[in-house]
Amino acid sequence: MAKANITRDIIHRQIKERGALGFERHYHVTDPFIRRLGLEAELQGHSGCVNCLEWNEKGDLLASGSDDQHTIVWDPLHHKKLLSMHTGHTANIFSVKFLPHSGDRILITGAADSKVHVHDLTVKETVHMFGDHTNRVKRIATAPMWPNTFWSAAEDGLIRQYDLRENSKRSEVLIDLTEYCGQLVEAKCLTVNPQDNNYLAVGASGPFVRLYDIRMIHNHRKSMKQSPSAGVHTFCDRQKPLPDGAAQYYVAGHLPVKLPDYNNRLRVLVATYVTFSPDGTELLVNMGGEQVYLFDLTYKQRPYTFLLPKKCHTSGEVQNGKTSTNGVSNGIHLHSNGFRLSEGRAHGSPQVELPPYLERIKQQANEAFACQLWTQAIQLYSKAVQKAPNNAMLYGNRAAAYMKRKWDGDHYDALRDCLKAISLNPCHLKAHFRLARCLFELKYVAEALECLDDFKGKFPEQAHSSACDALDRDINAALFSKSDNAEDKKGGGPIRLRATGRKDSISEDEMVLRERSYDYKFRYCGHCNTTTDIKEANFFGSNAQYIVSGSDDGSFFIWEKETTNLVRVLQGDESIVNCLQPHPSYCFLATSGIDPVVRLWNPRPESETLNGRVVVDMEGASQANQRRMNADPLEVMLLNMGYRITGLTSGGAGGSDDEDSSEGQVQCRPS
């Protein structure tokens, strides 16, 4: 972060009181603060794991819920326990929320006993008990615009809505996921958009995250009740539980096709936490069994692996490597069988030279690549890409580093970078070839073969290179593999949308919604999320400048949002960090996990030179977490017992012959 003189801003804030909010937002969380973040205090009072934390709106109270079935309200600024009460639950508490506009008097809890309780803190009494769920309640959500209303998500697959103005002690089902995904689906988390409370995001079993328009759902049900023929339906006149347009799905484009492989390795994909950015334009998801993903709700994009249209584009629809229809701009020609490069040897515009300081960053990245420091190379290329987003070479180089590192999702990010590089420079030879390799690694074997054939036609001098021959052999071996053919063809539907083992439980409506899913904007790697299903990831800073997430290794990770670069790792628990809740207006963070304490973090004075909680080897911690995520359950158990796993590597076998420090001949020897 560039150095800044804040004197003028301080004076402006004093003279114009209206500038105070802008000042606070701009300097709320800054890079120097992140670099000095350290442990301030430990709040002791619980006797079990602390599974949930919640700040009040002002930020002067912090509530916690625990396996001990108690909730505690703290004064975090003075490290004092203000109130402790037994909630009446008979099992672990998983969620705690202050009810908006209640003067911080009403607290809501959800627990593993399938119950939702409402408490009056002034008299330390439970005033409402709801027992409508039939499985563990994992999350509670509230909305400022609806002060008497809240929602719950539970492992019975239901999202329920509560209105404390009603006399009834029951709730209503807002969304029933079992109608779409079968009886085994479990809802794990939910959140309401802070800027438009009509939108509710839900995370559940599987890789898809769902965004619902609550207003449309209610209007649809009112119209059904008012319709004279509401109770009379024929076999063909099936009433949809949700109206068209009321739901929108989001998914990391590579995950659906990876499901069979993950299931075979007993690796579960489940959204453990969802949250909106402060301005409501972005959705952050901690995907259990995978990485952290950020989805842009304004500038949406389809998953690249979904872009397999059933109609051929005419040659006139592709100009300068960009498709002019359907809003797709991939730099390649998509047709009925997959990917095709634009015809002919196009003459792209000359590459714009980088400014000297970015050229230095690129050279540093190339040197890191040559030393097989893949993550360091990726972070340097990402830093340069943020400053020069229209430089094809940077995307091509970063794609090469992703392909060498081979962490979960790296080949898909490499594919995205290849497509971006080709759209910027249709003559980018290496990006064309790497695209074919990425498609193959992502199990799009037929598309990879066609992409490779088109590459040979576009660059005939490379048609018989060792790299092309090796990829050709890999593709043909996969095409003739009986197991691959059986996996591709069974079920009668696209592999990216099927539910393995329970395809009959997926409704047609669900298939359509999945087909219309949107892809992620950013991906954040380094943490591990496989052991618990309540692990959070959050925006940090009023302008959402940073991303924070807990991890199975007892650390929590902090990334720059825009570059996705990891900037800080701190040891937050002896076992697992599950909860991270940033203060609403200060650079102040509350965390909890398996330890029966709440830890508070803020920027430490510069005079404090030692910080024993800092994980210095962030790269080593990230690699260990990638191994942990790919280990089988027995290996994870041994790792938790202190044994070292040596059978899996973090990626990047082979030499650095794929480095792109010079834009010459293709030297992509498959590893």
TrEMBL record:
Signal peptide: none annotated. PROSITE patterns: WD_REPEATS_2, WD_REPEATS_REGION. GO terms for cellular component: Cul4-RING E3 ubiquitin ligase complex; cytoplasm. It comes from the Eukaryota. The keyword Repeat applies. WD repeats lie at residues 43-75, 86-129, 540-569, 570-611. Pfam families: WD40 (PF00400). GO terms for biological process: negative regulation of fatty acid biosynthetic process. Keywords: Repeat, WD repeat. Residues 650-671 are annotated as: Disordered. PANTHER family: WD AND TETRATRICOPEPTIDE REPEATS PROTEIN 1, WD REPEAT DOMAIN-CONTAINING FAMILY. This is WDTC1 protein. It comes from Dicrurus megarhynchus. The lineage of its organism: Eukaryota, Metazoa, Chordata, Craniata, Vertebrata.
